[in-house]
């Protein structure tokens, strides 16, 4: 599939959480005269915020963060503790974030052993479905920041009801859009540049997977609730279970029943609905335990949609850029497109490790902003950015190593394997920049700085589309060859698409304007 923008795609957590009456749910406990929920599935409360005012002593409040004080400095021990807390939240968050990328990576590895045309068709079909899912990422991001900020302000029930509004909106959008995509599958794949056998495979995959879209959007919205509540362990369990289901069915449908690329799409559809139900049921139970209503509230649903419009514009600009990248890869030939899909699915997978850091920071920072603690929000932003940079460096080395040693997992073709290696090496070099940018991106989303993100992502998209036009013209003039095509394609993506966003995000967090 195409690059997940999520991605950021992407929110959270500390354990302030509610457990429902069932074995997977909640038991209320009393602490300090206030009723709160103890998360059975998480096992333990998250640590109180390790960033302390200089020279002060304090006790955590009900959010697990210090009550008061100014951040005059953060000592070495506190930074280490803050980083530990960030990764404590990020690791299980990564588990739920990788659901869709893991499905695509599994699909890519299996379909790549059918033939090059099937892998190229998967690239086209998955780009369309991921673009659609990506355009609805506001269901996760918007719900996360709304729930986290309302809880930070002491309005737990209202926060949960905002999350339920997101579930209703996800279901409605999913049903309408999946029906339209099924009807328009072949024309859309043709417009993306698919022809002949690639077009047949792309259409088959898209029509097989498309009705899993409502289930995946429910996953997004439910994740927003759990992130906002800092309850991420259940999302990790759902992601692992979904990946297991998808892998088993993929092997059965593709190699056992010989359904080809359509079998891969059908396996993913089933896994998406499995995950959707796995998460929605406990989300509703936990919400009911805190007195939140399940009823659809038209005002709340419309409010969620309205609040998500700037995020939609942001994501539309980004997805347009990624669609254009796939279209250019399709013009470069079947082998380049097939290799692009393998690199893209791998990159998309590791990006979610980085996105998990931004999402963990998003919940911590959003809670601080909701409680009016701007100094602490700045401190956590700095720590999250550095953590993203360092994680990008480490993961980038792993991605480069995979490019040197593991390309045979994606294709038996030596030519395609060589192109995959080139793409992964380029991505490994630039991954630290992506890690820093993604961390700041998640935090700005948590601060609901949507209009700035929409504006800067639109500017980035326009610059990137112009750069792709230049690459296409250069290739037509001098015939770069497949190896240089692959290197230039990924190099331009990182320098322009990632680089400009990193610049804009870095300039923004230097001020206080983004904190409302």
List strands and helices in order, with pairings.
Blueprint: H1 6-9, E1 26-31, E2 34-39, H2 76-97, H3 99-111, H4 116-135, H5 138-152, H6 156-183, H7 185-191, H8 196-209, H9 213-228, H10 233-256, H11 261-289, H12 298-307, H13 309-331, H14 334-370, H15 374-405, H16 414-446, H17 450-478, H18 482-509
Antiparallel strand pairs: 1-2
Helix pairs in contact: 2-10, 2-14, 2-15, 3-4, 3-10, 3-11, 3-14, 4-8, 4-13, 4-14, 5-6, 5-9, 5-14, 6-9, 6-11, 6-12, 7-8, 8-11, 9-11, 10-11, 13-14, 13-17, 14-15, 14-16, 15-16, 16-18, 17-18
Fold and architecture overview:
The chain is an all-alpha fold. The protein has 2 domains: 218 residues, no CATH class; 209 residues, no CATH class. Helix content is 74%, strand content 2%. It contains 18 helices and 2 strands. Strands 1-2 form a two-stranded antiparallel ribbon. Strand 1 and strand 2 form a beta hairpin. Helix 17 packs antiparallel against helix 18. The longest helix is centred in the last third of the chain and has 37 residues. The N terminus is likely disordered.
């Amino acid at each position: 599939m195409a690059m997940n923008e999520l991605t950021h795609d992407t929110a959270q957590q500390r354990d302030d959480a509610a457990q429902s009456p069932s074995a997977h749910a909640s038991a209320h406990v009393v602490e300090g005269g206030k009723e709160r929920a103890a998360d059975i599935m998480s096992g333990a409360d998250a640590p109180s915020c390790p960033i302390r005012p200089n020279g002060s002593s304090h006790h955590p409040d009900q959010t697990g963060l210090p009550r008061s004080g100014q951040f005059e400095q953060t000592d070495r021990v506190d930074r280490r503790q803050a980083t530990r807390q960030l990764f404590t939240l990020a690791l299980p968050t990564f588990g739920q974030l990788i659901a869709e990328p893991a499905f695509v990576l599994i699909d890519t590895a299996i379909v790549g052993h059918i033939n090059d045309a099937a892998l190229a068709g998967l690239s086209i079909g998955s780009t369309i479905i991921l673009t659609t899912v990506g355009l609805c990422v506001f269901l996760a991001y918007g719900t996360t920041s709304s729930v986290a900020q309302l809880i930070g302000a002491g309005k737990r029930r209202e926060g949960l009801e905002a999350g339920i509004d997101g579930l209703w909106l996800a279901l409605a959008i999913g049903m309408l859009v999946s029906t339209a995509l099924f009807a328009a599958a072949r024309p859309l794949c043709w417009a993306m540049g698919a022809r002949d056998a690639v077009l047949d495979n792309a259409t088959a995959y898209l029509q097989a997977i498309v009705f899993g879209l409502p289930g995946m959007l429910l996953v997004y919205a439910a994740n927003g609730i759990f992130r906002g509540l800092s309850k991420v362990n259940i999302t990790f369990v759902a992601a692992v279970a979904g990946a297991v289901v998808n892998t088993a069915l993929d092997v059965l449908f593709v190699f056992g029943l010989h359904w080809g690329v359509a079998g891969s799409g059908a396996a993913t559809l089933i896994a998406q609905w499995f995950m959707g139900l796995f998460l929605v049921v406990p989300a509703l139970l936990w919400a009911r335990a805190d007195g939140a209503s399940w009823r659809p509230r038209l005002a709340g649903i419309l409010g969620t949609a309205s609040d998500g419009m700037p995020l939609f514009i942001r994501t539309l600009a980004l997805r347009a850029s990624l669609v254009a990248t796939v279209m250019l890869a399709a013009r470069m030939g079947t082998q380049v497109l097939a290799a692009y899909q393998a690199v893209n699915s791998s990159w998309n997978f590791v990006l979610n490790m980085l996105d998990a850091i931004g999402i963990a920071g998003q919940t911590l920072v959003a809670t601080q902003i909701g409680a009016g603690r701007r100094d602490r929000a700045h401190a956590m932003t700095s720590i999250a950015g550095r953590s993203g940079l360092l994680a990008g460096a480490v993961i980038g080395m792993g991605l480069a190593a995979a490019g040197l040693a593991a390309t045979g997992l994606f294709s038996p073709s030596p030519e395609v394997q060589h192109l995959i290696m080139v793409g992964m090496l380029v991505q490994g070099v630039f991954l630290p920049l992506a890690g820093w940018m993604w961390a700041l991106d998640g935090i700005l989303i948590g601060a609901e700085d949507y209009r700035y993100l929409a504006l800067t992502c639109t500017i980035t998209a326009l610059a990137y589309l112009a750069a792709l036009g230049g690459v296409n013209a250069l290739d037509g003039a001098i015939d770069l060859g497949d190896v240089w095509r692959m290197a230039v394609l990924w190099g331009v993506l990182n320098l322009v698409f990632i680089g400009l966003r990193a610049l804009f995000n870095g300039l923004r967090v230097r001020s206080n304007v983004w904190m409302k």
